[in-house]
């Protein structure tokens, strides 16, 4: 199915944006429509024209007003436009009226993003998450011409007298939504079981606006990651996790996550919450920022707001300004360093300043390390070996048949070490009693 979507003939599209100064300026709308054009290109459409309509509020029936609709209808007809894409969410009434007037497909920003996610989804989990978001988006927009998702099931009593086609369709969709939610809960439970052992190792999640270069950065830091990276929006949907070794016995699990975007559909955020658990469980985040983008400051705000929406309340975040090689003005970079003194400035594509980023991760990680001392018998190979493999042994002193070790370890590993110490003490006590 996805191969078909990529290979199908490209459609001709017209983009529509609504400008309502002074709240939303024409310059802002032009930037938003540039992003919408990038989304359209990712989905497989060539943009023929962009239209900006200035209105204080959207028209409740046609979004842009009847006069503009009539003007655009002529362009759509004369230029054989296949699809009209609106930068805001349309109500079912607005979408239906525009489709009737233009006699072509009309979708809003949310519908376009969902289409891209459907194309990009590779794993069974991602496909289920996208389908769930699509169904929840479509449910209030169902019409009598809805194509059935599946054959009706059930027997006596499943369809009441006088039930209309639209009611049947809605019931089928709701049943499918409930089924997908059950399956996703089961998949999430299985994923938690599989990753439980990782939690002793500190986790770092890459977050950022879509196309900021997260996957490229992950490939640069962990060459074996082979994360999919290209100049397309939402190139990554499935979380990929790899080991990043900083120093001896100092490592982190680095996770690449789905990118964020302005007006990220709420249904999509809800559906992908299980994937975004990697972000919630991470010890700290690397916020990757495309510093070459003219609207990077607004993109930073979008990411921060989205993190807040999914439940990230801590401030353990390192800002990583990426693509510094694409900046034409070195003075601008100097200004950024002054304004963001704790940030790291890199080029993932060219490998610039990656050692400084690793040092910053190590310094941040050091705050989570704890220093402890233990005294145990020299024959306690299991405990001593574990400490040398998973901690930084600072000092050791031999006291007859015992050894005193002073070590530094991440707080996530302390619980396991304390369990090993307790087990060895119990063994020693039992041997003594015998």
UniProtKB/TrEMBL annotation:
Keywords noted in UniProt: Cytoplasm, GTP-binding, Magnesium, Metal-binding, Nucleotide-binding
Any one of the GO CC terms: cytoplasm
Compartments, record wording: Cytoplasm
Cofactor(s) demanded: Mg(2+)
Matching CDD domains: HflX
Residues that hold GTP according to the record: 208-215, 234-238, 256-259, 322-325
Top-level lineage group: Bacteria
Binding site for Mg(2+): 215, 236
Molecular function as annotated in GO: GTP binding; GTPase activity; metal ion binding; ribosome binding
Pfam families referenced in this protein's UniProt entry, alphabetically: GTP-bdg_M, GTP-bdg_N, MMR_HSR1
Start and end residues of each Hflx-type G domain: 202-369
NCBIfam families reported in the protein's UniProt record: GTP_HflX
Subunit: Monomer. Associates with the 50S ribosomal subunit.
PANTHER family assigned: GTP-BINDING PROTEIN 6-RELATED, GTP-BINDING PROTEIN HFLX
Function: GTPase that associates with the 50S ribosomal subunit and may have a role during protein synthesis or ribosome biogenesis.
Family: Belongs to the TRAFAC class OBG-HflX-like GTPase superfamily. HflX GTPase family.
Protein name: GTPase HflX
Organism the protein comes from: Chlorobium limicola
